[in-house]
Amino acid sequence: MKKTEVAVKEKSSVDVSVAGQHDWSILGKSVVKKDTMEKIMGSAKFAADMELPNMLYGGVLRSTIAHGVVKNFDPSAALEIPGVVCVLTSKDIPGKNRIGIIIKDEPILVDDKIRRYGDAIAVVAAETPELVRDALEAIKVEYEEYEPILTMERAAEEDAPKVHGETNVHQKKHLEHGDVDEAFKHCDVIVENDYETPMLSHMFIEPDAGVASFENGQMTVYSSTQNPHYDRGEVAGMLALPQNRVSSVQVTTGGGFGGKLDISVQCHAALLSYYTKRPVKIVRGRMESTMVSSKRHPFKMHYKTGATKDGKVLAVQATLLADTGAYASYGPAVITRATVHAAGPYEVPNVRVDATFYYTNNPMAGAFRGFGVPQVAVAHEGQMNALAKALNMDPIELRIINAHRPGSVTSTGQVLDENVGFVQCLEAVRDKASQVLPPCAPTAPNKRRGRGYGCMYYGIGNTGLPNPAGAFVEVLPDNSVNLMVGCADIGQGSTSAMAQIAAEELGLEYEDIHVTFANTEVTPEGGATSASRQTFISGSATMLAARMAKNTLAEVASNYLNVPQDKLVFRHREIYSSEDRSVKMTYPELMGEMKRLGKLALGSGAYNPRTTGLNAEDMFGVPFEVYSYAATIVDLEVDVETGLVDVLNVVSAHDVGTAVNKQAVEGQVEGGVVMGTGFALMEKIETKDGRITNPVFSKYLLATAMDAPTIYPIVVESGNSETGPFGAKGVGEPALIPTIPATADAVENALNIRFGKLPIQHLDIMRELYKK
Amino acid sequence: MEQIKIQFNLNGNDISVTADPNKRLVDFLREDMGMTSVKEGCGEGECGACTIIYNGKAVTSCLMLAGQADGSAIVTLEGVAENGQLNYIQQAFVDAGAVQCGYCTPGMVLSAKALLDKKPNATDEEIRRAMSGNLCRCTGYSKIIKAVEMARDAKGGVRE
Amino acid sequence: MKPFTYHAPTTVDEAVAMLEQYQASCAVVAGGTDVIIELNERHKAPEHVIAIDKLSELRYIKEEGGLVKIGALTSFDDLENDAYVQAHLPALLETAVHVGSPQIRNLGTVGGNVVNASVAGDSPTTFLTYDAQVVLKSAKGERIMTIEDFNKGPGNCAIRPDELLTEIRFPALSSDEAVGYFKIGKRKSLAIVVLAVAIYIKRTPDNKVEDCRVVLGAVSKHPMRSPEIEALLKGRALTKQSLDDTLSAFTDAVQAAIPTRPSVVYKREGVRGAARRCFDQIISQFGLA
C-alpha cells in the first residue's frame, strides 16, 4: 500500500527565470559554434595531435584473462630494450589505487586480482610508439585463472565466485507508487512481455588519448574527456597531490556519448610522467579503446501493463535486470535512472519496479547516452504499442490519453510544473508525419513496410543528487567578455550555448563572448558533460554569473541614465530605458563610465538543480528539477528476401523547453536518430569468455551516410521559463531514445512478428520469417 | 633499416624528404609533415577519418605506406582553404552546421572535395555514395550531406 | 610495424626479380587495403616490403583475342568507371560498385582481392562465374591457372612466393551469354559479403539455358560452384517462372555446404533472394524482361 502524498520541488533559492521576456536577441539563433572554425580548417588540436618537447609515449599491458591473479610478472626483457624508459605496476602508485565516479572499485593498475579481460596490469613508457609495443610484447606474465562470471544467472547463484566483496549483486532498487496489485484487478486489458537490449559500444570516432606533463611539482593532464574536474580528483588521489597541484584540461574531444566519463588514459599517463619527469602521451588504438572503455548495460526486462478499455493505463509492473560488468562505473546512476523512468512519460497511478544489477567479469558497463532510459524505453514503449494493438486504438491517441501534462504526478510522486510539452510533441509528430510521409505501402513485392512509434521523457541532471556547476564572467573595458565555465564541450556545442546565454543576459553580441572551458586551473567545477545537464545547469550558472556582472553594470548605467535599474534593457550592445528608447547609452560608453568610477564588471555563478533525494524504500521524491519529452515516428521497409531493413523516414519531435541554438538542437536530434536506428537494428557488442570479439568498426557496424534515413526534426518549445536558463532543458540524450522503440515497432508492424529482443538484425528477421 | 627518399606534392608545395619506410602514410603525414588534420579512428580503412586526396582520389591513408607518397600529389585539409579563407565546401559545412565533434570533419571535407572536383554537378545520390566511406557518430549525416549539396549548388556546377 | 626494407619497383621484371631474391621474406603491397593492416598490427613482419602500386603496366582493361584481360593493379574504381565494363560486363560492374567504400575502391585492386582470398571477398565469386584464369609471373616464367584451381581459401591461394599475379582474364561474352551478381551486405556501404550469388547463363537460340555456372560466395571457404543447381538449370526456359522454380535448390546447396554453421540459418534463406535477383538481371540482359 502506498500513500497518496506527492513530492513538490523546493522553492528555488536562486532565480533563473526571466519572466515575460521572450523576444530574445541572441538565444534561439543558429549561431556558428565557437569551435567550428578550427575544426573546419583542420587546426583543432585533439589529444593525439599534441606534441610536447622531450615527450615519451606510454602504453598499457592488459590482462588476457577475465578473472584471476597475476602469478608471475617479469618485465626484465622489456627493460633491456634501448629506448624503453620504465615499466610501472601498482606498487609504484604513491597514493590511492582505486577510482570510479560513484564507487571507487576499479584499480588503476591491478593489485589484488583481475576482474575483466583488459584490466591494466602495468604501464610502459618509451621513446617511440613502436618501442612501447616492443616493450609490451616483451613483458612476461603468468596468470592463475579463476572461474569467470559471464552471465547474470551465474552471478546470482550462491556458490558463484564473487567479483567484489561478499555478493555479486551490485545494487537493487525498488520503486512503489500507488497500489499495483489492487489496480491490476480493475484493468480491462493487461499486456505482459519480455524485452532484452544488448551491450553496446559508444564508438566515438576519436579513440581515447591524453598527454600528461609533470613539471615543477604541477601535474597537467590534457585529455579527451567529458569530465576534467573528476579526472583531476582521481589523478590527485593517485599521486597523493593536493587537487590544486593537478590541472586537468579537456582538449578538443572527438565524441563521448558517455564513454569518456570514466578515467581512460589520464591516470596512466600521469603516473608515467610523475616517474619519468617527462611529458607522456598515450593514444589508444581502436581495439584497446573499445575493449576497455565502458559499455551500455545489457538489460533483461519483464513488463506487465494494465489499462481500462478506454485506454487509461492504471498500472505498470516491471522487473529490470542488468549486467554492470567488472566495475561499478556509472552503474548506480543507470539503475536509479532506469527505475525512475521505467513507466515512461505517462501518468500511471500505480507503478512497481524492481531492478537488480549484477557484477560479472564482463566488460565494464557505465554511462552511455541515456543512462538506462533507452533500455527501459524499449520496454515501456513496446508495452504502449502492444496495448494500442490490444485495445485497437491509435498509438498516438493512447499516448495522448496517458501523457504527462503540467500538474501530472510521476511514479516518484513528483508533481510536474508547467514545463511539460509532451502532448505538443505527440501532436507535432502526428501532424508532420501526415504531411511528409508517403502511404505506408511497400515499394517492391519483396518488401514490407511499417510505421513505428516511440516516446520518452528524460530527467535533466543527476538523479536526486546534488550536481552543481559554476561559471565566472568578466566584462572587459572594450566590452568583450571572458566567460569561464567548467563544462566540457565534446562537440555538442555547450560552449556556444553558454556564450549565447551570457550574451543574451548581458545584452552583448555572441561574438563578444570568449569562452574558456573545462580547464581546472581557471574554470570552476563543471561536473560531467552527461545526463544532458550542461545547457540547464552550467547554462544556469553562466546566466547567474552574467547577471552578477550585469548588476554592477546596471548600477552604473542607472545612475548615468537616471533610469531605475529595473527599467533598463541591455540589448545588442546598448543599454536603454524600457519606457523611452531614446534614453540610452552604448556599451563602450558604459564601459568608459565603469573605468572612470574604477569598477569591474565581474560575476560568478553556481547552480545546483532543485531536487530531493529519493526514499530508499520506495524511491519517492523529486529526482530531477525538469524533464525533456520526445515523440518519434519511424517509417521503414523490410526486405523479406534478405532480412535487411531500410529506414526511410524518421519524424522526431523534442520538447527542449527553449532551443538555445536551433541548428545545434537539430544536429543532436539527427545524430540521435541514426544512433537509435543502429541500436534497434545493427549494433551489439559480442563477447567470448569476457573478451569483446567485435571491438572494431569492421565488426561493430554503424550506419553509413547511405543507410541514414531522411530525418524531420521538430523542436517543441514548452518555453515556460520558470526553470533553466531562459527555460532551456536538455536534448543530448533525449535525441537518441524514442527512435529505438519506434524502429523496433516499425519492423514488428511491417512483419507482424514480435521480437522484443534488440537488435533486430537481418538474421533474426530471416530466422523468424522462415521458422521451420 | 634504410631511410627512403620521398618527393611529392603536398597541398600544392613540392616536398623532398627522407623518412622511415616502416610507417603508414597517415603516420608520415601526421608525424613527419605535421598534417595533424589527418585523423586516425580505426586503422583499418573503415572510418574514413584519415581520408586524404591522393592523385585526385579520396583514399584512406591508414591503408598506405609512407613510401607510396613518393611521386604523388596529396591534399589534406590543411591545403583546402584558399589564402586563409574557407573554400566553398568548408563554408557550406559551417553554414549547414555540419560540424559537431569535428573528428570526422577533415575526412568528410576531403571526400566531398574529391567528388566535387571531378563532378561539380554530382547528384544527391552520388553525394551520399561519395560520403559513405566516412563514419560519423554525432550528426546522423543529415547536415553533412546537406552541406555537400549546398556546396555543389553554391558553386553552380562551375569547376574550380 | 616492425622494420623492413622498402622497395618500389617500376617494372614487372624488376618486381619479379625482387620476389625471386626475397621469396618468403617479403610482402607485396598492391592496394594495401588488407596487408597494411596486418603489417601495422604486426601480424606480418616481413624483412622486405615490395610496393607494386607504381607498376602502371598492370593497370588495364582490354578485350584481346576473344579474352577480357584485366591487369592485376586495376582498382575497383577503375572497373566502375571503365566504358567496356559498363557496356559489356554488368555483373563485374555490380561487383565493383559494392566493394567497401569509395576510398577502398580507389585503393583496392582486383589482383589483391583475388590473392587475398578472403572468404568474404567480392570479386573472386564473380571471376569464377566468368570462368576466369589468372596469369602468374616469376623469374622462371609464366603460369596460367584457372581461378578455380587458384582459390584455396581462406586467405590462401596457389601462388608461389616468387610469383606475381599480373592479370585476370576470361572469355569475352557474346550476346547469348549473361552474368548476374547479387551481394548481400549488412549495410549499403562498407559492407563485406555476407552472401553472394553469381550466375552465368548461355542461352540457346530458342532462349533456353544451354550452359551455366552457378557460384555461391561466402558460403564455403572459397567461392563454390554448385553442379547440382547447374544441372537443374540446364535446358530450362529463360523465363522468370522457370528459373525461380530452381530457388529451393539454392537453399539445399547452402544447407549441404555448411550444415552445422550457425550462419546457415540465415544463408539458406537469403540465398534464394540473391539468386532470384541474379535471374532477374540475366533475363533483363537478354532483353527478355
From TrEMBL, chain A:
One of its GO terms (molecular function) is oxidoreductase activity. It comes from the Bacteria. Residues 41-147 form the Aldehyde oxidase/xanthine dehydrogenase a/b hammerhead domain. Gene3D superfamilies: Aldehyde oxidase/xanthine dehydrogenase, a/b hammerhead (3.90.1170.50), Aldehyde oxidase/xanthine dehydrogenase, molybdopterin binding domain (3.30.365.10). InterPro entries: Ald_Oxase/Xan_DH_a/b, Ald_Oxase/Xan_DH_a/b_sf, Ald_Oxase/xanthine_DH-like, AldOxase/xan_DH_MoCoBD1, AldOxase/xan_DH_MoCoBD2, AldOxase/xan_DH_Mopterin-bd_sf. PANTHER family: XANTHINE DEHYDROGENASE (PTHR11908), XANTHINE DEHYDROGENASE SUBUNIT D-RELATED (PTHR11908:SF157). This is Xanthine dehydrogenase family protein.
UniProtKB/TrEMBL annotation, chain B:
Keywords: 2Fe-2S, Iron, Iron-sulfur, Metal-binding, Oxidoreductase. It comes from the Bacteria. InterPro entries: 2Fe-2S-bd (IPR002888), 2Fe-2S-bd_dom_sf (IPR036884), 2Fe-2S_ferredoxin-like_sf (IPR036010), 2Fe-2S_ferredoxin-type (IPR001041), 2Fe2S_fd_BS (IPR006058), Beta-grasp_dom_sf (IPR012675), Diverse_Oxidoreductases (IPR051452). Signal peptide: none annotated. GO terms for molecular function: 2 iron, 2 sulfur cluster binding; metal ion binding; oxidoreductase activity. Residues 4-80 form the 2Fe-2S ferredoxin-type domain. The keyword Transmembrane does not apply. Pathway: Alkaloid degradation; nicotine degradation. The keyword Iron-sulfur applies. This is (2Fe-2S)-binding protein. It comes from Anaerotruncus colihominis.
TrEMBL record, chain C:
GO terms for molecular function: FAD binding; oxidoreductase activity. InterPro entries: CO_DH_flav_C, CO_DH_flav_C_dom_sf, Diverse_Substr_Oxidored, FAD-bd_PCMH, FAD-bd_PCMH-like_sf, FAD-bd_PCMH_sub1, FAD-bd_PCMH_sub2, Mopterin_DH_FAD-bd. Residues 1-175 form the FAD-binding PCMH-type domain. It comes from Anaerotruncus colihominis. Coiled coil: none annotated. Keywords: FAD, Flavoprotein, Oxidoreductase. Pfam families: CO_deh_flav_C (PF03450), FAD_binding_5 (PF00941). This is Xanthine dehydrogenase family protein subunit M.
